[in-house]
Design brief:
305 residues, Glycosyl transferase family 2, transferase, Spore Coat Polysaccharide Biosynthesis Protein SpsA, Chain A, 7-stranded mixed β-sheet, 20% strand, Glyco_trans_2-like, globular, 46% helix, transferase activity, transmembrane, single chain
Length: 305
């Protein structure tokens, strides 16, 4: 395999985490890691004068018409020195061969993305792990959708100007990237801890529900219809449906190489999916990263607080 071109890795975060160290250690001399924060008030900004070689701090500023994450990614794309781009997040472990493996995947497939497996840290996020496995993991992989936690592409793989223009007007960075980029979703998972409190998990579910609704409204209609049918079947025939739901979820877990006892929660999670989606769609606002947003339409985002 030929040597990959110089690469810019974008990592939005407000604090220095183990993920920053993981990625910085994998840089070649010609690569760069752009740690993107909001501004000087973020804890990571205090490290600006003591960053490892190849690491730069980018201050994105406060978002005005998009989410803080979308604003950070757009600022990182503008600041990147290279045409080969990697997106990643600060909340999961990056093994020592993470970056080199993505480069090898790109040589075989073109633009690529890994998939997340969300691991709950509070009662609600633990309970809905099977839903996240079916939607967030299997759904992302089966639909060849990009995940912002681990995506590699080059600027010429998409219309970068059009993408960035829209990115500054919306909430979901990877939801929009999936519309602009023809990527291959790899069957390689990264375990991402989520939640911490029931309130935080509810806000996350609201955001996920609205992302699906804004970017894939037909998918949301299908999810609600299928979910309603399964809920009715689960109420009428709880035993058989519980067995089938558990077996299906166990297959998905095994397919992605995940061993988690939460597979046993497949039936109660299934019975909750329609009420949770309905709650998510009914909410007018949601909180993400300390900011409250109202999202009336796909390219109309209002920072409320």
């Amino acid at each position: 395999m030929s040597r990959p071109p110089p690469t810019s890795v974008l990592l939005p975060t407000v604090r220095w985490t183990d993920a920053c160290d993981d990625v910085a250690a994998q840089l070649r001399p010609e690569d760069e890691l752009l740690v993107v924060c909001d501004g000087d008030d973020d804890p990571v900004a205090a490290r600006a004068d003591e960053l490892p070689d190849g690491v730069r701090l980018v201050r994105a500023g406060d978002p005005e018409r998009c989410s803080g994450k979308a604003n950070a990614v757009a600022a990182g794309m503008d600041a990147a020195s290279n045409d080969r781009i990697v997106w990643t997040d600060d909340d999961f472990h990056h093994p020592p061969d993470w970056l080199s493996t993505l480069h090898a995947d790109y040589e075989r497939h073109g633009p690529v993305s890994e998939v997340p497996f969300f691991v709950g840290r509070d009662p609600l996020s633990v309970l809905v792990e099977p839903l996240y496995a079916l939607g967030g993991t299997l759904g992302t992989h089966a639909g060849d959708k990009a995940w912002a936690g681990a995506a590699l592409f080059e600027r010429d793989d998409l219309d970068a100007d059009a993408f960035l223009s829209e990115l500054r007007l919306t909430v979901s960075d990877d939801g929009l990237l999936s519309e602009h980029l023809d990527a291959t979703s790899l069957r390689r998972t990264r375990r991402v801890p989520v939640g911490g409190s029931v309130r935080e998990s509810l806000e996350r579910h609201v955001r996920f529900s609205k992302i699906v609704y804004r970017h894939e409204p037909r998918d949301m209609a299908v999810l609600l219809a299928v979910g309603a049918a399964l809920t009715l079947a689960g109420a009428l025939f709880p035993g058989p449906v519980a067995v089938l739901a558990t077996l299906l979820t166990a297959f998905v877990y095994a397919y992605f190489g995940v061993g988690r006892w939460t597979v046993l929660l497949a039936y109660p999670a299934m019975m909750l999916q329609v009420p949770l989606f309905a709650y998510g769609l009914a909410r007018r606002t949601f909180v993400w990263g300390g900011r409250r947003y109202r999202w009336p339409s796909k390219f109309d985002v209002r920072v409320v607080e």
